Amino acid sequence: MTEPFTTFSHELARAKAEGQPLYSAWSLFADVLVARAVASGPFDAVLIDAQHGHMDFAAAQAMTAAIHHAGKAPLLRIPVGDFAFVSRALDFGVQGIVAPMINTAAEAQALVNAAKYTPVGERSFGPFGACSLYGTDAANYAAKANGACLVFAMVETERALANLDDILAVEGLDGVFVGPADLSLTLMKGERVDMDCEMSNKAYKLIADKAAEAGKFSGIYAFSVDYAKRYAGFGFNLIAVGSDSGYLAAGMQQVAADLKG
Where residue 3 falls among pLDDT bands split at 50, 70, 90? Predict the structure, then answer.
């Protein structure tokens, strides 16, 4: 029998130790075939966006299996405050949870409680879908899950930034994940999204540095390859790049340009 979920958590730790990031794709379409196609690409993981994406629970479950069978790690962003989705997603085989709009240590603790088994958290035991997907048994899963199922709190507001040290101090939280558009919007006092301004870039770099000091992972979403390269230079460990809708649009644009060339 194989050990559940250890590959991606170990790979992320290895990459961090080597000073190199891992890259994730981003999935907005609630479609198994699209998820499988994206997972066949050159990424280390695929993140299912159940916050702004179009998938419900059943679609996310089917996409998780498709991503795994394509040889990549399935990750999932829950809707805001939907901690009930955390354990359900882990139960069907997601290897990592990204939770948006975590502003306080208390909210980070509630996230950990939903994602980790006792004595770290309060997750209810029932990972039978994950056991089936990964070919393991319940006892082995229980022994490995707290270390292998990653949980990230998204830092997306000035309030979260002010509470960053307390959030990072929460036991069982594996890391923080930056939503650069939302964080930029709050830093700009709601006037605009400006991910290129000095204030935003300083905040992103601070978060990566603080996570490293706390011995935890840092992640961030990058709207383009240029942003991804910048964030890699800041020291982020996990960088999600673009989205399936963007990959489709870029591919069509390239084909059109080639036809005209």
Answer: low
Residue 1, pLDDT > 60, answer no
CA distances from 104 to 30, 80, 119, 162, 176 (A): 31, 14, 21, 9, 12
Query: Is it the case that residue 146 has pLDDT exceeding 50?
Result: yes
* Region 6-260: CATH code: 3.20.20.60
Which residues are the active-site residues?
Answer: 52
Q: Which two tokens stand for residue 221?
A: 């979403």
Q: Give the SS3 label for residue 178.
A: strand
3-class secondary-structure state, position 151: strand
CB burial string 173-209: b at 16+ within 10 A, e below: bbbbbbbbebbbbbbeeeeebbbeeeebbebbbebbe
| Residue 72 region by backbone torsions, left for phi larger than 0, else alpha for psi between -120 and 50, else beta | beta
User: H-type helices in the chain, by residue range?
Assistant: 6-18, 32-39, 57-69, 83-91, 105-115, 128-134, 138-148, 158-162, 164-168, 180-187, 198-213, 225-234, 244-260
pTM exceeds 0.85, yes or no? yes
